[in-house]
Design a protein that fits this description.
The complex is a heterodimer of chains A (99) and B (192). By secondary structure, chain A is mainly alpha-helical. Chain A is 69% helix and 0% strand. Chain A contains three helices and no strands. Chain B folds into two domains: 1-88, RNA polymerase sigma factor, region 2, helix turn helix motif (Rna Polymerase Sigma Factor, Chain: A), CATH 1.10.1740.10; 92-192, Arc Repressor Mutant, subunit A (Orthogonal Bundle). Classes of the chains: A mainly alpha (99), B mainly alpha (192). At the A-B interface, helix 1 and helix 2 of A face helix 1, helix 2, helix 3, helix 5 and helix 6 of B.
Chain lengths: 99, 192
């Protein structure tokens, strides 16, 4: 059982670490860069890559929905409180009428 | 002619000069290829490196100059490799006997003997070990695979690896530990 020996595991581990850190050298095909640039130009025609003047920090995408939800809850609570206030007011006015 | 800083090139690209991007590719392709070669099988390296530069171009409007461009590009390269493995199907346990033919067994015996190799044997050993490590990594989830590759195999600090993946340090530490246990078990099957 070759691999079960701890010393063998240590040697195999060392071999795979060494191989992982020394991948075979290769350079891109001579027309690889042209292929990338062709796609980049196509993307540019679609408007990608320009200066983002309307850049919105990502945090806003989390904060804004939370604020919207909180506002909605507050609005519903205020509306509900106002409804019961006017209801009580109407009842008290009607019951206190002299006729 | 003096070479331009990355910042000048990026501002030129943002201004609408798309051809200036080729200058950035020429300057950084070695770094990107170096990263991608480490994570991806040789026959798919060009395709993934292509994706890295297209992604970088799409996001260049959001680059803030807070950190060097090459760090930002390296993060894109690592995340593109991660996305590649998320799309690839994860394999089940791979029997090692499947690739330890006579030639493979000779190389394996060489590794296990602990005897130093000459240049020719070193190349053969690395090729064999690389095939072996890719097969072992195929058994892991894409997340565990990236954690093991960045931290254990490449030797990057936990904080750096976590930053590259956009994960917490605890997350990458746990994944790396779990993946190492799986790797150890898989290595113990070799030669069975």
């Amino acid at each position: 059982m070759k691999g079960k020996d701890p010393e063998n595991i240590r040697r195999l581990t060392a071999a795979i670490k060494d191989a992982y850190r020394h991948p075979p050298e290769s350079s891109p095909n001579h027309n690889w860069r042209e292929g990338v640039m062709a796609e980049i130009r196509a993307l540019a025609e679609g408007g990608a890559g320009r200066s983002n003047l309307f850049y919105v920090p990502r945090i806003l995408f989390r904060v804004v929905p939370l604020m919207a939800a909180a506002s909605l809850i507050l609005f519903i609570a205020a509306w509900s409180a106002m409804g019961s206030f006017f209801n009580d007011l109407a009842v008290s006015v009607l019951t206190e009428l002299p006729f | 002619m003096a070479t331009r800083e990355d910042r000048e090139i990026i501002e030129d690209i943002r201004g609408g000069n798309v051809n200036a991007f080729e200058e950035l590719i020429a300057r950084h392709e070695n770094r990107v290829f170096g990263i991608v070669r480490g994570h991806i099988p040789a026959d798919r390296v060009e395709e993934v490196a292509h994706d890295v530069f297209c992604r970088a171009y799409r996001s260049i409007g959001n680059f803030r100059f807070i950190k060097p461009f090459e760090h930002w590009l390296s993060t894109i390269a690592v995340r593109t490799c991660y996305d590649y493995w998320r799309k690839e199907k994860r394999r089940k346990e791979v029997p090692f006997s499947a690739f330890t033919d006579d030639d493979g067994r000779e190389v394996l015996d060489g590794i296990l003997s602990g005897v130093a190799a000459d240049e020719y044997d070193l190349t053969r050993r690395r090729r064999f070990a690389r095939e072996m490590v890719f097969r072992l990594l195929d058994e892991l989830s894409p997340e565990d695979r990236m954690a093991l590759s960045l931290v254990y195999l490449e030797g990057r600090p936990l904080k750096e690896a976590a930053g590259m993946m956009g994960w917490s340090v605890t997350n990458i530490k746990v994944r790396n530990h779990r993946a190492r246990q799986t790797l150890k078990k898989a290595l113990s099957r070799i030669g069975d």
